[in-house]
Amino acid sequence: MQPVAYIVSEELVRVSSLLPSNRNRSLLVHSLVSAFGIQSLALPDGQRCIKFLRPRRATSKELLAYHTRDYLDFTLNPSNDYEDLSQVAEFGLQDDCPPFKGIQEYIPLVAGATLTAVYAFKENICEVAVCWDGGRHHAQKSHASGFCYVADCILAILALRRLPPSPSSGPPRRSRVMYLDLDLHFSDAVSHAFHNPSVTAMSQVLTFSIHHAAPGFFPVSPLSSLPNPEDALFDPFTLSLPLQKGASCRTFARVWPIIERIKDTFQPDFIVVQCGVDGLAGDPMATWNWSIGGLGSLGWCIDRIVHSWSGKKLLLGGGGYSSPNAARAWTFLTSVAAGRPLSLDAEIPDHRVFPLYQPSFTLDVAAGNMQDQNSNEYLQHIEDVFGRVQAILQRLSGESP
Fold first, then answer.
1. How much is the average pLDDT of 70-75?
2. Rounded CA gap, 186 and 195, in Å?
3. Once rounded to an integer, what is the mean pLDDT over residues 28-42?
4. Does 116 have pLDDT greater than 80?
5. How confident is the model at residue 367 (pLDDT cuts 50, 70, 90)?
């Protein structure tokens, strides 16, 4: 068993901790991982479970694989004073994405961190990689959006589909990449980047976003609704599963077989999982009521993906606006990915940000009492819709791109 590649460096933590929407969250996450001694976890044979990899900065060429030159020239210019308000607005550097000190470092370093994981796959260093500072799924081709300044998810998918497929993938074909987004918010940038309603054969990329959608809830997109094969925008490789308020472990356990069936039909060589934690109980978004432990929990989902699914897996971060709870969740998921899950009853070790974990001072994220509004009738409707989608995918599965 290969160790899990964990992408981190002091520079990445410092720069990521400057992100306006998540000040110091990166510091909390990596400090808690270290405090629990996850870097020292070992298998019964003594082999280390975690291999730390230092990220490199993405090159201009790598960033230009998706982003426009104008956007990069503007955001990466070290002498930019952001006084030209028309350009500031054009490139989305306002409202939820203000310019900030360190943005010129942040964009290439976060993109490079996620691409370092792709490199680890290419060099067969690991089967599973973790980059909690990545997962910026709202960043658009030519502008920042939704707290996201760089489209590292898209850059990773573009790079992964150029790698050779798994040796066990059967007849010769190009690699397939499945992107699964577990964030509270729809993966608009990623889904739109690969959306192709005129597709007639098996695609190299399948995006699947599980999220909350409601009138006025960010981001507003026609692709955030349940797929409709009769709709002109329908693409069986761009899938959405919107859940109502209060979505809990019970709901995720109910819909999870849908995801498994789509995965089995698509047969990906690489799986990119955006592990946003803004749907957990206690998050300021206060929309879902998800947990990190138990049947149907976030931890349960990641355990199944990492230890039961074929292919190489990349776990990314994302939303999460209670920084202590984000640190709890991603520390626990790191231990799950490593095959040595921590006890959710474990006490938070004493370290420099220990007081932030009051009042429980334990690893688990406290359960909420929000009512799950995903009725049996709604979930049955979801199952019926995806039954039709899967049938379409099965018809296309005989043809490789």
1. 98
2. 14
3. 94
4. yes
5. confident
Per the structure block, which two tokens stand in for 61?
């060429």
Report residue 354 CA to chain centroid gap: 27
The pLDDT value given to residue 168: 75
Q: Is 351 a catalytic residue?
A: no
pLDDT (mean) for 384-400: 88
Residue with tokens 């990220």: 55
Could you give all domains of the chain from N- to C-terminal order, each with its CATH number?
A: 4-396 (3.40.800.20)
**pLDDT at position 169, please?**
66
- Among 138, 185, 195, 212, the one annotated catalytic: 138
pLDDT of residue 401: 40
